[in-house]
Design a protein that fits this description.
Largest sheet: 8 strands, parallel, barrel
Helix content: 40-55%
Strand order of the largest sheet: 1-2-3-4-5-6-7-8
Number of strands: 8
Number of helices: 16
Strand content: 5-15%
Radius of gyration: 20 Å
Shape: globular
Length: 324
């Protein structure tokens, strides 16, 4: 199977952050970056309102659904739904270190059960024609040798998994919060590069601590197939405006700051006309214009007014007016 073009650059799934509104906003900045949903548990889909968790705006493509779960039958059912709902990919979360999901055998804890992950992947792949991928850490707790990582990937790859998204930190499953698990365990990019060298036919995408395009391109130049940005893409969204030109050789959807302001204003007006409150849109845009004159006033005005009962479609444009 050839390398999936869409994986060259992606924005990580982030709980409470990569909502549909966030993804629509990111899509205004890049036509080609692969976007991911927040992790959705199989239980929420099967026992809740599946439309609530699976619906999205058509502009979000290319779009991947990330699932959390451990039961092959449940994951199989949800993978089929992902295809039915038109997602471009379905991803299995084997990387989240949260205590809450560990208790449900979801996330990074699954790295200690490679046979179960293999069963889950096979069940998912058998039920859908869209790509099924796995996102995981380089290890967990004391299971942190390179050999452990290599054997884990090798086991799942034997069932046909072609794409592995590797967060280049191990997860410590007790004693650290999810935030601490993103900061305290050291990054080990060399281990992910070695994994690609040992599995040249697989697509290996690296995640974790990447903050600049220069850093991302250096990693691609060392043989990796893709890079995934997480919090940097969220907290500094303008980094996405260079994605299409740098990674895909195409013109970006916004050409300059004046054009960007107009695109954002049009989106906000259309979205609010469709009934989406400004607070659901604006919270994802507070990181715009870092270092620009008026950026602090923009953030303050937007923060103070986006929850107001008298908010109007002009509120966002008034905030933009501070940027000069």
């Amino acid at each position: 199977m050839s390398k999936p073009f869409q994986h060259i650059f992606s924005v990580a799934p982030m709980m409470d952050w990569t909502t549909s509104e966030c993804r629509q906003f990111h899509r205004l900045l890049s036509n080609h970056a692969l976007l991911y949903t927040e992790m959705v548990t199989t239980g929420a889909i099967i026992h809740g309102q599946k439309e609530r968790f699976l619906n999205y705006h058509n502009s979000e493509h290319p779009l991947a659904l990330q699932l959390g779960g451990h039961d092959p039958a449940d994951l199989s059912h949800c993978a089929k739904l992902a295809g039915d709902f038109g997602y471009d990919e379905v991803n299995l979360n084997v990387g989240c270190p949260s205590d809450r999901v560990q208790n449900g055998m979801i996330g990074a804890v699954l790295m200690g059960h490679a046979n179960l992950v293999t069963e889950c992947f096979k069940a998912m792949a058998d039920q859908t024609d869209i790509p099924v991928t796995v996102k995981h850490r380089i290890g967990i707790d004391d299971l942190d040798s390179y050999e452990f990582l290599r054997d884990f990937v090798g086991s799942v790859a034997k069932e046909g998994c072609q794409t592995f998204i590797v967060h280049a930190r191990k997860a410590i499953l007790s004693g650290l919060s999810p935030k601490e698990n993103r900061e305290i365990p050291p990054l080990d990019y060399d281990r992910v590069i070695r994994l690609k060298q040992d599995f040249p036919d697989l697509n290996i995408v690296i995640n974790g601590g990447i903050k600049t395009h220069e850093q991302a391109i250096q990693l691609l130049d060392q043989g990796l197939d893709g890079v995934m940005l997480g919090r940097e893409a969220y907290q500094n969204p303008l980094i996405l405006t260079d994605v299409d030109s740098l990674y895909y050789g195409e013109e970006p959807p916004v050409q300059n700051e004046t054009h960007l302001k107009q695109v954002l204003s049009d989106w906000v007006r259309t979205s609010m006309h469709d009934g989406i409150p400004l607070k659901y849109l604006a919270r994802h845009m507070l990181g715009l214009f870092p270092g620009r004159r008026g950026a602090k006033q923009y953030r303050r005005y937007l923060s103070e007014n986006m929850h107001s009962g008298e908010v109007s479609t002009d509120t966002f444009e008034q905030a933009l007016g501070y940027i000069g």
